[in-house]
Design a protein that fits this description.
Length: 388
């Protein structure tokens, strides 16, 4: 094994690199989760987290991965046999569909080519055709982390409204929250699902559900079995800054610090930074003469870029060379895309030189793997970084 020095480059699209400030905030004595000091922390994070979701309503925080928060959204709002509309945008959308089926829901799964997001036109057509209003929810992955494609949630909302359909809108923002523009309330989302280890710059371990009034009302009628994920006792205990069970105390210290960092930078600046780094990344990819997987420029992800290689190259071989030589982790191609793409994460705790280093490592790795690229790709990105 090669000995590496300096910091590892964790350029996968989550988990992302955790800022020292957050690590230090977590490294504190664990306190009594039923004591008065805890209530202050609880009330503080429950309030501070709301602007990141763009909501003034409740945000439920679980000690869980994102997958747990997916389940929470479904079991709190739906009943056995309910129909839901979902879209094959990539690996994560497919996993979420599998969960919905496993829970006893009937999923209308609109096929896709893993290069595009949810088509608002198809949402409008499917809902208009559902005259009986038997579709109870529309499930959308905002940023499909397996493909680097961002679906246009406001247009999807408009399509639901245009059809005059009462379905709930459930949106997975697991890899978009705190990185790209998102507005739970303004966009009329009913449950926004997220977790800690991507744009929020935390280690894995917290899951989130932002909940609309309509979703709360649906929870009163929903009959899927639920216990641990049940919003009701959590929201009750949250009134006083507590949880009905032991919350992830130290992760909440970290969450508070990460939220303060996002406040300090200002969300509009956070979003602009991600857009700019994504644009520079695409300039490098296109400069190399390679293809960005996302096929529609309105859906380019500012969180990550998936790079498509020709059939003659194995993307995992490129990743292994880069890990071995330059100590950088890149995202692998998931399921259908295995060996075909690698993914560059440019989200979270990240700056111009992190991107410059990342792209330099990718360029050298491609060259070492024998991929025929134009080395002007890197300078195309640096030109953009230098410009502002
Ligand atoms: C990472 C991810 C998930 C899964 O989250 P876990 O924390 O691994 O359970 C789901 N959806 C999207 C879009 C993701 O990026």
């Amino acid at each position: 094994m090669t000995t590496h020095t300096g910091r590892h480059f964790l350029q996968i699209p989550g988990p992302t690199s955790v800022p020292d400030r957050v690590l230090q905030a977590i490294a504190r004595p664990t306190i009594d989760h039923r004591g008065p000091e805890f209530a202050e922390l609880g009330l503080d994070v429950l309030e501070r987290v709301k602007p990141v979701f763009g909501t003034s309503g409740p945000v439920v925080i679980y000690p869980s991965s994102g997958t747990g928060a997916w389940e929470a959204a479904l079991v709190n709002t739906l009943s056995p046999g309910d129909r839901v509309l979902a879209f094959e945008t990539g690996h994560f959308a497919t996993l979420w569909r599998g969960m919905a089926e496993g829970l006893g829901l009937e999923v209308d799964f609109v096929p896709g080519d893993w290069r595009r997001g949810v088509d608002p036109q198809v949402v409008a057509e499917r809902l208009a055709a559902d005259k009986a209003h038997s579709i109870a929810a529309v499930m959308v992955v905002h940023n499909e982390t397996s493909t680097g494609v961002t679906s246009r949630v406001p247009e999807i909302r408009a399509a639901i409204d245009e059809a005059g359909h009462p379905a709930l809108l459930l949106v997975d923002t697991i890899s978009s929250l705190g990185s790209i523009d998102y507005r739970h309330e303004e966009w009329g989302v009913d449950v926004t699902i997220s977790c800690s280890q991507k744009g929020l710059m935390l280690p894995p371990g917290l899951g989130f559900n932002a909940v609309s009034e309509k979703a709360l009302a649906a929870a009163g009628r929903a009959r899927l079995p639920r216990s641990y994920w049940d919003w009701t006792p959590i929201l009750e205990a949250n009134q006083h800054g507590y949880w009905p069970y032991t919350p992830a105390t130290n992760m909440l210290y970290g969450l508070r610090e990460a939220l303060i960092m996002l406040e300090e930078e200002g969300l509009p600046n956070v979003f602009a930074r991600h857009d700019r780094h994504a644009e520079a990344t695409r300039a490098a990819v296109q400069g190399w003469g390679l293809e960005v997987l996302c096929a529609d420029e309105r859906e380019y992800s500012s969180v990550l870029t998936a790079v498509l290689l020709g059939e003659e190259h194995d993307a995992d071989k490129v990743r292994h060379i880069i890990l071995d030589r330059f100590d950088m982790s890149l995202g692998t191609g998931l399921s259908k895309l295995a060996g075909r793409v690698f993914r560059i994460g440019h989200l979270g705790h990240f700056n111009d030189l992190t991107l410059a280093g990342t792209l330099a490592g990718v360029q050298m790795g491609l060259e070492l793997a024998g991929v025929d690229i134009n080395p002007a790709g890197l300078s195309a990105a640096l030109d953009l970084l230098r410009a502002e």
